[in-house]
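Final report, Chapter 2: Outcomes

The project's central promise was a pipeline that accepts a single protein chain and returns its three-dimensional structure in a standardized token representation, suitable for archiving and comparison. That pipeline is now operational. To close this chapter, we reproduce one record exactly as it appears in the project archive, with the input sequence first and the structure output second.
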Amino acid sequence: MEDKKIVTFGEILLRWSKNDCLRLMQGTKFNGNYGGSEANVAVSLAMLGERVEYVSRIPKDQIGQACLNELRSYGIEVNHVERGGERLGTYYFEASASMRNSMVVYDRKNSSFYSSAPGMFPWHDIFSDAKAFHCSGITCAVSQSAADATFEAVKTAKEMGLTVTCDINYRKNLWKYGADAHTVLHELMQYSDFIFGDQNEWEVATHVPHIPVNNMYVDTEFDMKAYKAYFEEMHKQFPRCKQMLLALRNQISTNHHTLTGFLWSEGEIYSAKIYDIYPVLDPMGVGDAYVAAYIHATLKWQDPQRSLDFALAASQLKNSISGDFNLVTEDEILQFM
């Protein structure tokens, strides 16, 4: 059987952060590493043994070349990364500590990806040997032209018969160019076979109120009938969608979280165990690890419960790894499970 690839599309960023939970205004030294939701998914999929191509737009300079070198080091194909634009997008991350929440400051306006536009990427060529396409709401939040390029990609992917997966990825601080986040995300999700998001993201995209969850511990019991009715209401909005995954994370303290999830798959509802995660080393990219592992598992096993359990375990492990990328293999996840 031909080894078909999974394609992801998004903006790779340079993340700047400080050691020892210093605030951004403290100290003089920053640590830099590459990340960004769709790039994180690409790396996770490659670590799980998938053939992956990452599509983006980056500057034609040494920083852009460093991005390509980083992606290639994980075996990711970058043949259709567009080179051009002014600069690489960045963000500054302030880690949480004690009762202080984490903070992100974006610096993405007028980045190379910001000026992505329809016609820049030869999607028919890119998808000619692909089995799935993954995108997220972040690309639609960056700029109008980047949103237009994203819709060009998803429409082409559907026309060519690919499985389309979508992470809602609502980032309130990014929606600054005038578009309504609910309207755009709701339309993007119409093309998706699989949709992933947390409670807040699903509510923004659907206007369906989430089911309140307070103080989630490992022995918490959930009303599965309520969640089944919740997903069925959302499926009315996205009748093409075959699978919907809701991630639930409870932050007990900055380095102590609980994590679980619910999956709706073609009319059936599935739940998973609740992981008690302590200590949390780095929570960045946990959602990306979740969605990547689920894509891999469901394409490989076509078993909803096993896929959900695998994805949750992969996401749990990401909390133990510094940086944005989930550097774990399929064997390691299975052994952990």
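Archive annotation: The longest strand covers residues 243-253.
This record, like all others produced under the grant, will remain available to the consortium after the project formally closes.
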